[in-house]
Design goal:
The complex is a heterodimer of chains A (567) and B (360). By secondary structure, chain A is mainly α. Chain A contains 25 helices and 2 strands. Chain A has a domain of 234 residues: Orthogonal Bundle (MetI-like fold). About 1% of the residues of chain A have low confidence. Chain B has 360 residues and is an alpha+beta fold. Helix content of chain B is 23%, strand content 36%. The chains are: A mainly alpha (567), B alpha+beta (360).
Chain lengths: 567, 360
C-alpha cells in the first residue's frame, strides 16, 4: 500500500502531544481516587469509595446539586427558547443586539454577577433589601440571596446564553415550506406550531437541556459566592472544600478524585447523549439555502410586552449586577444611593487594588492570554487536520478524545492537574506557577477550538487541495498557499474565542492558584473573600471593561476578515 | 502515452470493502481524445484519481510514457505533484481567495519545478487566457465568475504547463444544457489545436460520442467495450453498452430454422442470425431511428404491421410508440404525419440489428 498522500509527520506529532495532554489528567483522576495519604506516598485502596458511599454529607451535597442543576436548567430553557424563537422568527425590537448582549454575559464571569446580586439582595447589606425594608417598614429583609433559591436564580440567568446559541440555529434554519405545507393543508397557526414547529425544534431543545444541565451540575462560580457563606454545598464547592479547607491537615485529593471520577464518567455519558441529540436537530435545518427562509411574524400588540420582558432579562442578568458593582467600586462602603453617598465618591478602591498586589495579576493574565490561545490553536489545528483529512482508522477516536474536556467538569480537571503537579514538582517545577494555570487552560480549551476547526476544514473542498497537488505543488506548499488562507477566519476566530475564555476563567485558577500565580479573576475572588467588597468591585469593573473591549474588537476583526472570497 | 495494466482498486467502507476498479486495462495514444463513459458509481472517477496520484492502487501498473507512476506489486508511487499531468475537477476547484491570474499562474509559480521568470509567467498566462477566451479577467476574484467562466479558469490552469496528459473529471456536468454544448465544442477544438492527450470522463452519452476519438464504456469497475463512437453505437458488443449509448428496442425470439427467428413481432430472417443454433433464445436490438414508417401495406421479411399508440413531438423529430405484435416499439422519425390509432407498416433493416443470446 502506497503512503497516504495527505499525512505529514509534524502534524501527527503535534496532534499526539495534544492527545497526551488531554488524556493524562483524565486518566489520572481515576488513579488518584484510589490513593490515600500524601501525594506520592504510594498507598492505594478503595477507602475513598467506601467513604463516598457512607458519608451523609456527600448525599446531601449531591442532592443539592441535582436540585440546583435541574432547576436552573429549567429556568434557563424557559427564558432561552422563547427568546431564540422571538429573535429568529419575529420582529422583536432590538433583536440584533440580543446576540451581542448574550455574548457579553458569557464573557463576564458568573461570579461577578453573583457578587452583584449579593450587593443587591444580601439579607444584611443588600441595597435592594434595604430599599424594601425602608419602603415597607420591615424588620427582616424580604430576600436572601444566600440560599438555594438565590443560587438557582443567579445561575439560571447566566445559563441562558449557551442554551440560546444551541437552539437559535435550528429556529433560523427552519425550512419555510414545511410550515407552508401545513397551512395549505388547512391547519391553524397553533396546530402548525404544535404539530410542525415544536417537533422540529425538539431535538435542539433536548440537546440544549442536556448541555446546560451538565454545565449547571459542575459549575463553581455562583455556588462558591452564594452557597458557601451558609454552607450550602454543591459538587464543585465540595471538591473545593476537600482540597483547600480541611481543618485536620491534609487536602483530601483521593476523596475529591473519587467524587470527581464518578461525575466525570456521568458527564461523559451525558455528553455523548447530547451529541446524538444535536445531530438529530441538525437534520431538520436547511443549510444549503434550497428551502426558503420564513417570513417574520409580526408581534403586533405583543411587541411592547415582549420587548419589556427581554429588557427585564438583560437587566437582571447583566444590568443590575454590573451597575451595582460599578457603584460599589466608587464608594467607601455600601449604602443606598443618596446625596451623601454621591458626595463620597472616590477612586481609592481602585488605587488600593493596585497597591496591594501591584501589576502582578495583570502581568500573569497577560502572560496567559498571550501564550494559551496560540498553543491551543496550533494543537487544535493539527488534531482537526488528522480527524478531517487523514485516512487513519483511529481518527474518530481521536476526535472523541479531543471532545472529552468539554464534558469533564473543570473542577475535576483542576484537582487532577494539581495532584500531578505536586507529584512531579521535583522534575517539572511548574507547581504554583502561572505556567501550571496556562497548561490547564490549554488542556481545557483544545476541545472548543477543535469543534470550530473541524467544521472549517470540512468546508474546504478536498478538490481545492488536490488541484494544488496536481498543479505541481508539494503538500506543504498546498497547506500554506491554499488551506491556510481559507482557514484564516476560523483560525482567528478560535484564537480570539480561546483568548476570551482564558481571560475570564476562574474555576480552575482558584483551585490551582498560589501567591505568585494570581490572575485577575482570582484577585477579585481573594479580595471578596477577605470582605474587601469595594476593592473587589473595583477589580471586577476593570475585568468587565477589559472583557467588553476584547469582545468588541473580536467582532470587528472577524467581520473584516470574512470577505466574500473566503470560506 | 498512458498505459494501464491490470489495475485494481479497493475502498474500505463501513461494513466491508468495495472493488471500485477491477483488472482494468487501458491505453491512450499520444494526441488522442479518449472518453470514458459510464453511469455514476462505475469507478471512472476512482480510475482518474488513481492516474492522478490522488489515490493509491492495490494491484496493477500505471505508465505515463516510459515512466512508471504507480505500481501495486512493485510498490512504486509517484506523488501527484511530480506526475507532470493536469486535471480539471468536476467542481472546477478554482481557489476563491486568489484572482484569476493567480489561479492560472499557480502551476508556474508554486510547482516544485519552476523555471519561469515573472515576465515569462505573465506572458504565458496571457496567452492561455486568450486561448480560453478569458482575456481581461486577470484581476477578478474567482468567486464572482459564472460557472462557465470558472471552468475556463480551471482549463487554463490545467493547460498552462503543457501537460503530457490532461485528465477531465465530468467537467461539463454542472453547466446548463446550452453552455454544455458550447464548452464541449471548445474543449475539443482547444485540445486538438494544442495536441494535448486527453482522458475525459463522463456519464453523458451525447457528450461522450461528440468528443471521443476513442470511446470506452465502463460499468462496475470494468471496461465493457472500447472503440470509435460509431462502431460502439452501431455494433455494441453487449446489451449494457447498447443501452448506455442511446435508446434500443429489444425483441425476444427463438431460433426456428437456419437464420430464421420467431420473435414477439413476427418472423425475422437474416444473416445476422446465422451463428445461433436452432432452439436457442435470442434478443434482437435495433435503434428507434432505423425503423421506417409507412402506411398500411403488405407484410414481408422485414415489414411488420402495427398501430400507433402515442406520439411525442420533439421539435426536430417525432417519437412514435407503435404496437407491433406483442411489443411496443419506439420509433424516431422525421415524418410527422402519422397520428394516434393509425395502422402502419413498420420496416426494420434486419442486417443492421444486433443479436445477443438471451441469458435470462
Amino acid at each position: 500500500m502506497a503512503k497516504d498522500p495527505s499525512a505529514s509527520r509534524t502534524v501527527l506529532v503535534v496532534s499526539l502531544l495534544g492527545l497526551v495532554l488531554i488524556l493524562l489528567p483524565l486518566l489520572a483522576t481515576v488513579w488518584i481516587s484510589f490513593t490515600v495519604g500524601i501525594p506520592g506516598s504510594g498507598d492505594h485502596s478503595l477507602e475513598n469509595y467506601g467513604r463516598l458511599i457512607s458519608d451523609p454529607m456527600g448525599y446531601q451535597t449531591i442532592r443539592n446539586t441535582f436540585i440546583f442543576a435541574v432547576s436552573s436548567t429549567i429556568m434557563a430553557l424557559v427564558i432561552a427558547a422563547p427568546l431564540a424563537w422571538a429573535v429568529a422568527r419575529t420582529d422583536l425590537p432590538l433583536r440584533n443586539s440580543v446576540s451581542f448582549l448574550l455574548g457579553m454575559i458569557l464573557v463576564i464571569p458568573g461570579f461577578l454577577q453573583a457578587m452583584g446580586w449579593v450587593l443587591l439582595l444580601s439579607p444584611n447589606i443588600g441595597i435592594l433589601n434595604q430599599l424594601l425594608n425602608e419602603a415597607f417598614g420591615l424588620q427582616e429583609s424580604l430576600f436572601n440571596i444566600y440560599s438555594l433559591g438565590g443560587m438557582i436564580f443567579a445561575e439560571g440567568l447566566s445559563l441562558v446564553p449557551p442554551a440560546f446559541f444551541i437552539v437559535l440555529p435550528v429556529f433560523l434554519g427552519m425550512d419555510a415550506s414545511l410550515e407552508e405545507a401545513s397551512y395549505l393543508s388547512g391547519a391553524s397557526k397553533f396546530r402548525t406550531f404544535t404539530r410542525v414547529n415544536l417537533p422540529l425544534a425538539l431535538p435542539a431543545l433536548v440537546a440544549a437541556a442536556i448541555y446546560v444541565f451538565v454545565l449547571a451540575f459542575a459549575v463553581f462560580e455562583v455556588p462558591v459566592v452564594l452557597g458557601l457563606p451558609n454552607r450550602i454545598f454543591v459538587f464543585s464547592t465540595m471538591l473545593y472544600l476537600l482540597v483547600h479547607f480541611q481543618e485536620a491537615g491534609l487536602p483530601e485529593y483521593g476523596l475529591a478524585a473519587a467524587y470527581g471520577s464518578i461525575v466525570m464518567i456521568a458527564s461523559i455519558i451525558l455528553a455523548v447523549w447530547y451529541s446524538r441529540w444535536l445531530k438529530e436537530s441538525r437534520k431538520y435545518a436547511t443549510i444549503t439555502g434550497k428551502g426558503r427562509r420564513v417570513k417574520t411574524l409580526s408581534l403586533g400588540k405583543w411587541r411592547p410586552l415582549a420587548a419589556g420582558l427581554v429588557c427585564l432579562y438583560f437587566l437582571l442578568a447583566l444590568g443590575l449586577p454590573l451597575m451595582v458593582l460599578v457603584y460599589n467600586s466608587f464608594i467607601p462602603y455600601l449604602v443606598l444611593p443618596s446625596r451623601e453617598a454621591f458626595e463620597s465618591l472616590t477612586l481609592q478602591n481602585y488605587l488600593n487594588v493596585y497597591s496591594r498586589q501591584g501589576l502582578r495579576p495583570l502581568i500573569n493574565t497577560g502572560l496567559l492570554i498571550t501564550f494559551v490561545p496560540v498553543a491551543v490553536v496550533v494543537i487544535a489545528t493539527a488534531i482537526s487536520w488528522i480527524v478531517v483529512r487523514s485516512r487513519f482508522k483511529s481518527r474518530f477516536v481521536i476526535d472523541e478524545i479531543a471532545f472529552l474536556p468539554i464534558a469533564v467538569p473543570r473542577i475535576v480537571l483542576a484537582v487532577s492537574v494539581l495532584y500531578l503537579a505536586l507529584l512531579s514538582r521535583h522534575f517539572i517545577p511548574i507547581y504554583g506557577t502561572i505556567f501550571l494555570i496556562g497548561l490547564i487552560h490549554i488542556i481545557a480549551f483544545i476541545s472548543f477550538a477543535t469543534r470550530a476547526l473541524n467544521g472549517a476544514i470540512l468546508q474546504i473542498h478536498t478538490d481545492l487541495e488536490d488541484a494544488g497537488r496536481v498543479s505541481g505543488a508539494s503538500a506543504l506548499t498546498v497547506l500554506r498557499k491554499v488551506t491556510a488562507p481559507l482557514l484564516k477566519p476560523a483560525l482567528i476566530g478560535s484564537w480570539f474565542w480561546v483568548l476570551l475564555l482564558s481571560f475570564r476563567e476562574v474555576t480552575m485558577a482558584v483551585m490551582i492558584s498560589s501567591v505568585d500565580s494570581v490572575v485577575l479573576p482570582v484577585q477579585i475572588w481573594i479580595l471578596w473573600n477577605r470582605a474587601l467588597h469595594q476593592e473587589a468591585s473595583a477589580s471586577a469593573v476593570m475585568l468587565a471593561l477589559i472583557a467588553l473591549v476584547l469582545m468588541i474588537s473580536m467582532r470587528r476583526v472577524i467581520q473584516r476578515i470574512s470577505s466574500p472570497g473566503g470560506s | 502515452m498512458l498505459k494501464i495494466v491490470n489495475l485494481t482498486k479497493e475502498f474500505e467502507i463501513p461494513g466491508g470493502r468495495i472493488l471500485a476498479v477491477r483488472n482494468l486495462n487501458l491505453s491512450v495514444e499520444q494526441g488522442q481524445f479518449f472518453v470514458l463513459l459510464g453511469p455514476s458509481g462505475c469507478g471512472k472517477s476512482s480510475l482518474l484519481r488513481c492516474i492522478a496520484g490522488l489515490e493509491s492502487i492495490d494491484e496493477g501498473d500505471i505508465y505515463l510514457g516510459d515512466r512508471l507512476l504507480s505500481s501495486g506489486e512493485k510498490r512504486v508511487f509517484v506523488d501527484p505533484e511530480d506526475r507532470e499531468l493536469a486535471m480539471v475537477f468536476q467542481s472546477y476547484a478554482v481557489w476563491p481567495h486568489m484572482t484569476v491570474f493567480e489561479n492560472i499562474a499557480f502551476p508556474l509559480t508554486e510547482a516544485k519545478t519552476r523555471s519561469c521568470s515573472s515576465d515569462q509567467v505573465a506572458k504565458r498566462v496571457k496567452d492561455i487566457m486568450d486561448l480560453v477566451r478569458l482575456t481581461g479577467f486577470e484581476r477578478y476574484k474567482t468567486a464572482t465568475l459564472s460557472g462557465g467562466q470558472q471552468q475556463r479558469v480551471a482549463l487554463a490552469r490545467a493547460l498552462i504547463r503543457e501537460p503530457k496528459l490532461l485528465l477531465m473529471d465530468e467537467p461539463l456536468s454542472n453547466l446548463d444544457a446550452k453552455l454544455r454544448e458550447e464548452m464541449r465544442d471548445e474543449i475539443k477544438e482547444l485540445t486538438q489545436r494544442l495536441g494535448v492527450t486527453t482522458l475525459h470522463v463522463t456519464h453523458d452519452q451525447t457528450e461522450a460520442m461528440a468528443l471521443a476519438d476513442v470511446l470506452a464504456v465502463m460499468s462496475n469497475g470494468q471496461i465493457l467495450q472500447i472503440g470509435d463512437p460509431e462502431t460502439l453505437y452501431r455494433k455494441p458488443s453487449n446489451r449494457i453498452v447498447a443501452e448506455f449509448l442511446g435508446r434500443t428496442n429489444w425483441v425476444a425470439g427463438t431460433m426456428e430454422a437456419d437464420s430464421t427467428s420467431v420473435t414477439e413481432i413476427g418472423r425475422m430472417q437474416s444473416s445476422v442470425f446465422a451463428k445461433f443454433e436452432i432452439g436457442s433464445r435470442v434478443s434482437v436490438g435495433f435503434r428507434p431511428e432505423w425503423i421506417g414508417l409507412r402506411d398500411e401495406g403488405e407484410s414481408g421479411p422485414d415489414r411488420f404491421p402495427g398501430i400507433i399508440q402515442a406520439r411525442t413531438f420533439l421539435g426536430d423529430s417525432v417519437v412514435y410508440w407503435v404496437s407491433v405484435g406483442q411489443k411496443r416499439l419506439m420509433v424516431k422519425s422525421t415524418a410527422s404525419n402519422f397520428s394516434s390509432t393509425s395502422p402502419v407498416t413498420v420496416t426494420i433493416p434486419l442486417e443492421r440489428c444486433v443479436v445477443f443470446r438471451d441469458t435470462e
